[in-house]
Amino acid sequence: MRKILFDTLMRRPLTEAPPVTDDKMLAELAASLERAARRRLGRSLSIREIDAGSCNGCELEIHALNNAFYDLERFGLHFVASPRHADVLLVTGPVTRNMREALERTYNATPDPKWVVAVGDCAVDGGIFSGSYAVVGGVSGVVPVDLHIRGCPPDPVQLLKGLLALLAA
Amino acid sequence: MPWPSDEIEGNKIADHRPWPRFAVNEDAWRLATAQLAIGRWTLLGLWGDTGAVHMAVLDANMREIAVLTLSCPAGHFLSVGALHPPAIRLERALRDLYGLEPIGLPDTRPWLDLGFWNGQYPLGERHGGSSTRAPYVFLPVAGDSLHQIPVGPVHAGIIEPGHFRFTANGETVVRLEQRLGYVHKGIEALMAGASLDAAARLAGRTSGDSTVAYALAFAQAVEAALEVKLPPRALYLRALMAELERLANHFGDIGAICNDASFSLMNAQCAILREKTLRTAASCFGHRLMMDAVVPGGVARDLAATCTAEIAILLEDIRRLFPQLVELYDNTASLQDRTATTGVLRAELARQFGAGGYVGRASGRAFDARKMLGYPPYDRLHFEVPVLDAGDVNARVWVRIREVEQSLGLIDQIMRDLPTGALRALVQPTDEVREGLGMTEAFRGDVLVWLRLEGGRVSRCHLRDPSWFQWPLLEAAIEGNIVADFPLCNKSFNCSYSGHDL
Question: Chain B within 8 Å of A81 (Cβ-Cβ)?
Fold first, then answer.
């Protein structure tokens, strides 16, 4: 173990420079973020992830945000275990009928001020699962959404851009 | 083909490939159930159709597969689960979707229908009105000093939703009961009437972590049904993708299992290998998870010229770092203390349920679809199927470590022997009704896809995730362990919620 830790100390960090956020995302957020909220929260956000019906592809890429290359925590963003501790809900999947109530309850359990980020093409409008008897559709049909991050699944850089936009807005 | 018609009488259905399908009567269905119950056959799948039920079985030598079909015009059939418990959840799901009643099914509670759909029996002919929300009754538990811990559907980590009901005596779990179905998306209904392209995309999103294995099983089924012969280069590129997918998942999970034993160094290092694998995949196949890269008839794109070198660098990186991590895993007593003898799955249960993947292979069941069925190009490649007997978390980790080594060897051979030539064969739709079966080895076990094509479109498609036969075994493996070891046991199984809920 010591050898691996020592090697790691001697090597250049793997963590890469943060991506530049794009204007469109900033514009979407400007409307939903107020200065007061920013004052209250500072630049540190706690994120609670909710899979509301995803194929688990989005979860894999959200997980990757924690690896050494992206190192999400350096931006003051970190994942928490309970909605009670969260500022941001990161919701994936077409919302299934079987998950709708759980999503609503999780949203209601999250203290204000809070933001909802819908992740993945399915979370926008149900994606390829829309029209199914078992699917409600996009996340915004169930809880108010502040930002959409598209992709199937969005890669970690796209996710990072979206989350940084949330901090910058 | 003599099997299984020696023992089971049935009429062979035309145009079902590559394995046969037989229409059987109730007596033959009963006999088949008995073969499953005594362990001569393994259940590969059980699913509904309009006015009929199908079961796919594998013989004990693990080389022959057949589908048996029982027509049920009166809307009911003899329950297989009554004699063979691995069928119980499949029959509960089948009834929720089709409204066909399994007579004698020991557990009649719904499984996928949680009471939120617009109507009951969405795929069936029978209409049961709006789905009702009767309270779900968990199995009774009696005894002194017992308490229950309900967990989920929303869990504490970045994971999929499902409900776990623990009954514990102090720290010790005396029963775990799962309730799944939360991410049921109705994929089989969306498949009905879909074009081949749309259906392939859906198949590739049944369980995102196994997108290559699913797309491959779906493509195999289509190609079998339409008798498409694949160009050799496409077969090799598919295998390359499948092994990259296996590597990425094994790295991620080996690290995550150690993380659940609070050993985060392994997680951090394994995550680096996973990321490097995904980046190589993105560079070679245009997508980190390689979604939509396997298509019916072949593969969507060729390897770029730089990929040979990139893959060589990836393999070199893995071969340099991974052995150190294996040594670290093996020599850290505090970690071994958590994984060894924890969450033991008995070999008899793994055999009975036909558990695939590392869950089965860590409990003595030597099944690997790549080896047993030898679908190309694996029939031409050399590799071993690591099997252990201990059945604990540690054994499941070791099987995966050994599989990483085998996958590296496979990629060496694939890159060395990679044929030149076409990437895609013409998939010529026909007006006839054609049926096909595909089976591939995903990282967590065998994926089965059965489909019927009509007029060039999918009219019915069933996708069976390996998790169907692993989830119930997790309930057994956790018994007698402490609650705090559940995440460790759960991660060592790593069943798919989405693949199961469909």
Answer: yes
Q: What is the pLDDT of residues B134-165, one digit of tens each?
A: 789 999 998 899 999 999 899 988 999 999 99
B271 touches chain A (CB under 8 A): yes
Separation of alpha carbons A45 and A167, rounded Å: 8
Find residues 61-80 of chain A whose CB sits inside 8 Å of chain B: 61-64, 66-69, 79
d(CA B243, CA B239): 6
Nearest-by-CA chain A residue for B282? A155
Give residue B1's pLDDT. 36
Taking Cα atoms as reference points, which of A155, A126, A154, A152 lies closest to residue A139? A126
Instruction: Kindly state the tokens that stand for B492.
Output: 């060592």
At B117, the amino acid letter reads W
Enumerate the β-bridge partners of residue B354: none
* Helix/strand/coil for A77: strand
Distances (CA, A) of A59 to A43, A158, B293: 24, 14, 20
Residue-level pLDDT at B131: 61
State the smallest CA–CA distance between residue A74 and chain B in angstroms.
15
DSSP-assigned states of every residue in B23-63: EE-HHHHHHHHHHHHTTSEEEEEEEEETTEEEEEEEETTS-
Which residues in chain B (63-122) have CB-CB distances under 8 A to chain A? 114, 116-119, 122
Contact A50 B154 (CB under 8 A): yes
Q: What is the ipTM of this complex?
A: 0.95
DSSP state, residue A50: E
**To the nearest 10°, the Cα dihedral for B484, B489, B494, B497?**
-60
CA distances from B340 to B19, B173, B268, B277, B476 (A): 40, 18, 22, 29, 17
Rounded distance between C-alpha atoms, residue B92 and residue B94, angstroms? 6
User: Which one of A4, A14, A128 has the shortest CB-CB distance to B205?
Assistant: A128
Interface-testing mutation among A96, A121, A157, A158, with chain B (most B C-beta atoms within 10 A): A96
Q: Give Rg (Cα) of chain B.
A: 22
CA nearest neighbour of A56 among B358, B155, B461, B286: B155
Q: How far is CA B177 from the centre of its chain?
A: 20
Residue B56 dihedral angles phi and psi, to the nearest 5°: -105, 130
Q: Which of B111, B122, B114, B125 is nearest to B46 (CA)?
A: B111
